[in-house]
Structure formats: structure tokens, C-alpha cells
Amino acid sequence: MAIQRTFSIIKPDATERNLTGAVNAVIEKAGLRIIGQRRIKMTREQAERFYDVHKERPFFGELVDFMTSGPVVVQVLEGENAVKAYRDVMGATNPTEAADGTIRKLFAKSIGENSVHGSDSEENAAIEIAQFFSLADIVG
Ligand code: GDP
């Protein structure tokens, strides 16, 4: 299996409840390494660019409001098949449908305030990592 990198965000609902360490513990237990990490407050411009693919969806405004409502932790994760491995440990978008032991089952508040983001493909992971990290800030 290939060693991959993926992009993660610990969202405002989780940082607000002081869950950064608890989320990171689940990530590391799943065999993923946190090789880049930074706590930031996203601007509207950053959030709108990041979620551009969803701009026609009815929840877009709500999503941008939420993602800019408090601090987030942006991360680069590395491991075997990291994109899928992280999607698996995140759980389904809607926490009521997420499997036991997943981050969203453990911590998410709702389909919108669902604690974490993870890239859905290796191609998108590279684009998303480049939006928030320079190479010098990623140490594998
Ligand atoms: P993900 O890949 O599992 O994060 O899910 P999507 O790519 O479908 O959606 C991106 C993000 O938009 C989700 O993680 C949620 O934060 C948000 N979102 C998705 N569906 C809804 C919805 O029906 N209502 C609201 N308020 N937010 C949503």
C-alpha cells in the first residue's frame, strides 16, 4: 500500500469544546501521523475558496458562517492510504449515520457542525494542503 498525505480540519465546534487533543488521539490511534498542524481563524475568503465546490448548495452560507465562527486546526496527515484511512475514521457526514468509534460519532453535534473535514481524493488533498501549508511547515 502507498504512503499518502491527506488534509484535515478540526472544525470550530470541536475547538470550541476543547476537543483538539481528543480528535488527535483518534487520528493517531488509527495509524495516521500528524506531520503538519496549525491553529488559525479562517477568513470568509479562505472558507469560500475552500468550499467553492459547494457554492450552489443551499447550506453554503451556513457552512461559511460556521467555518469562520471560531478557530480551526488545519492539519496534514500521513500514512498508508491516508485519504481513505482518514475518511473511514472520520465517519459519515451526518453523525447519526456515523459508525461507532469514528470521530463524528464520538464528537459531532450535527450534519453541519461535524467536527472534522478530510479530503475526498489524493488530488484534492494536494490542492487543499497547498491552500494552507508551505512545504517548510510539513515535516514527515
Ligand atoms: P464531507 O466530505 O463528509 O465533509 O461532506 P460534504 O463534502 O458532503 O459536505 C461538506 C461539509 O458541508 C460537511 O462536512 C458539513 O460541514 C457541511 N454540510 C453538508 N451537508 C450539510 C447540510 O445539509 N446542512 C449543513 N448546514 N451543512 C452541511
Give a nutshell description of this structure.
The chain has 140 residues and is of the alpha+beta class. Helices cover 39% and strands 20% of the residues.
Keywords:
binds guanosine-5'-diphosphate, alpha+beta, 140 residues, 20% strand, 7 helices, 39% helix
Walk me through the structure.
The active site is at residue 117. By secondary structure, the protein is of the alpha+beta class. It has helices at 12-16, 20-29, 44-50, 60-67, 82-90, 103-107, 122-132, and strands spanning 3-10, 33-40, 72-80, 116-118. A four-stranded antiparallel sheet has the order 2-3-1-4. The model has no long low-confidence stretch (mean pLDDT 98). The chain binds guanosine-5'-diphosphate. Guanosine-5'-diphosphate is lined by residues 59, 62-63, 93, 111-112, 114, 117, 120. The site of guanosine-5'-diphosphate (GDP) has 9 residues, from α4.
Rg from Cα: 14 Å
What spatial form do the alpha-carbon principal axes imply? Answer: globular
End-to-end separation in angstroms reads: 17 Å
| Chemical compounds bound to the protein | guanosine-5'-diphosphate
Q: Helix count? A: 7
Mean pLDDT: 98
* Sequence of secondary-structure elements: EHHEHHEHHEH
Uncertain segments of ≥5 residues (pLDDT<50)?
Answer: none
Proportion of strand residues: 15-25%
Q: Largest sheet at a glance?
A: 4 strands, antiparallel
Strand order of the largest sheet: 2-3-1-4
Q: What would you call the structural class?
A: alpha+beta
Q: How helical, in percent, are the residues? A: 25-40%
Number of strand elements? 4
Main location: cytoplasm
GO molecular function, one term: kinase activity
Family: Belongs to the NDK family.
Subunit structure: Homotetramer.
